[in-house]
Structure formats: C-alpha cells, structure tokens
Amino acid sequence: MQLAVTGANGFVGRHVVTRAVRSGWTVTGVVRSEAAAGIVSAAGGRPAELTAPDVDALSRAFEGARAVVHLAQIGAERDGQTYDEVNVGLTERVLAACRRSGVPRLVFFSGLGVAHYGMKRRCTNPYFLSKLTAETGLFRSGIEGVVFRPSYVVGPGDAFLPAVLGAMAAGEVERPGDGSYRMQPIAVADAAALVLAAAAHPGHPFPTVFDLVGPEPLSYARLVERVAQAARVGGTPVAYEVREIALAEAERQARAGGYQGMLPDELDCLLCDEVGDPSPLVTLLGRPLTPLAEALASAVRAA
Q: Which residues lie closer than 8 Å to 229 by C-beta, 6 or more apart?
C-alpha cells in the first residue's frame, strides 16, 4: 500500500499523509523545500524533496505507488508563479510521470465552480480555466482519475478560520456585500478520508468527479455567525460588529494588490455561490459526513 502525495506539506496534504500512515499506507510526500520535507516527516511520511519537479524526478518519487494524490496547486498567481506552469503544467508532468512509473490512479483536487465555467461570471476566470484544463488533461490521459472539487475545507491548520477569529477578537468583521453567497464547508478529516477511499477503491469508481462539500450549505453571513457560536461554546467570549463593504470596493482592492489578502480570483472563489450534493461522498466514504458544528469546533480548538 504505497501512496505518493504532491503538495504533501499543505493544509489538506498534511492531513492526508497523517491519516494514510495511520491506515497502513507507506507515503511519499513530494515537496520543494527542506522545511516542507520536515513537515512530511513529522506527519509520518517519507519526503521526496524535488526542487525541480520534472517528469524524471516525479517518476522516481512515484515508483511503486498504488495511487498519486495531486494536491500541489496555486489559487492565485503570486511571486512569479503562473496557472499555466503550476495548475496545468505540473499536472501534465504528474500525469506523464504516472504513465512512466506505472501508477494506475490519480486523485486530483480541482475547484468547486469548474462545471459553471462560462455560465457564471465568478466561475469564469483564469483560475477556474486552469483547473478545467487540468481536469481535461486527466480525463484524456488514460490514467484512472478521481476528481474532487472542494468548497471550503475546514479543520485544524486552515487559514480562513483563524483570520475570522482574529477579526472577531479585534471587534469587527468586514464582510464583502450582504454575505448571502453560499459555502458548503467540509471537515478536513472527511476530505482526507475520501482521498484515501478514492485511492484504494477497487476498480474504477463511479462517479469519478465529486463535489467535495459538507452536509450543510449556508450563507457566508451565517457561516461567520456559526464560527462565533463555536468559539463561545468552546469558552471564548466573542463580541464583534459586522461592517459591510461594497462588492465593487472589495473587487477594486483585490485588483490593486489584495482584499484581505485575496487577489481577484480568490475573491471570486469566496463569492461564487457554489454548492453541491454531498450524497455521493457519503456513498464513497461509507458513513455520514462530519456535522458542520463538529468541524468548526475542531478548527476553533486548534486555532
């Protein structure tokens, strides 16, 4: 039971490595720095530090793997990185390496909203196009592919929830627009378990594309309230005001360098109002998904 994970030092990647090792997998974590290699080692995996992840290097790292979990991607073009190089080009090299090393299956993280590219404005941007292009490359490759399109993945180590809690502690949460756009958070423990189920599933599972969503869709405004509720239940007093900023102003700031750290495509992902059907995930996992209250409580305790 060998598994290779790209982006293994990231938020979801760390949880995948930890859960896989505990489940008896031998895990190779493909990373690009010594610090990232240390994170993989701490999670119980075997790091493969590839400063230049070309097909030859990736093939060696994938040798003997039953599946590759491809998590390495970018959500915005920063620091000279481009979607063409990372989201598309790296995926092409990963697929070529799978063919060369005989890996039969690739588990790929895409984005919730890809299916509405060209149909909804906030799903029609360079980020979603790069994910759509990468998915198409996987479908055409001949490799068995399982695609997860995540909404917000919540749990210990995620970046979103600590930022919201910090704003609450400062007394004010700034919200783009009226907050009516929906999200469907899924617990990171469920996301990791689903990845392993897809990697280990005998034969080629159907469907092969899953919306990686939790059991409860809710508006962004309501999600902020639920975060505050989870903090209070955990014993943290929370008192804050919500200040609404016009969507046009949030978009202007995103274009000018970042709205609350988000560039335009990242802001689109927040505002795109995408939800999905969790029932195929329940079938794949063989159990109900973690309730949102439990997922938020776990993340708040770790924040």
A: none
Rounded Cα gap, residues 121 and 136, in angstroms: 21
* Token pair listed for 64: 């003997």
Whether 295 maps to a domain, the answer reads: no
**Is 283 contained in some domain?**
yes
Q: What is the pLDDT of residues 78-136, one digit of tens each?
A: 999 999 999 999 999 999 999 999 999 999 999 999 999 999 999 999 999 999 999 99
Whether 234 is in a domain gets the answer no
Q: Report angle CA 271, 156, 282 to the nearest 5 degrees.
A: 70
Q: How many distinct structural domains can be found in the chain?
A: 1
Please provide the average confidence, as pLDDT, over all residues in the chain. Answer: 96
User: Is 175 within 8 Å of 246 (Cβ atoms)?
Assistant: no
Which residues neighbour 3 within 8 Å (Cβ) at sequence distance 6 or greater? 20, 25, 26, 27, 28, 65, 66, 67, 68, 69, 196, 199
> Residue 52 in contact with residue 58, Cβ under 8 Å?
no
CATH number of the domain at 209, please: 3.40.50.720
Candidates 216, 215, 217, 218; CA nearest to 282 is 215
pTM of the model: 0.96
Report how far Cα 210 is from the mean position of its chain's Cα atoms. 13
Q: What's the domain range around 50?
A: 2-152+187-214+274-289
Which two three-digit tokens encode residue 118? 């060209």
What is the mean predicted confidence (pLDDT) over 145-157? Answer: 96
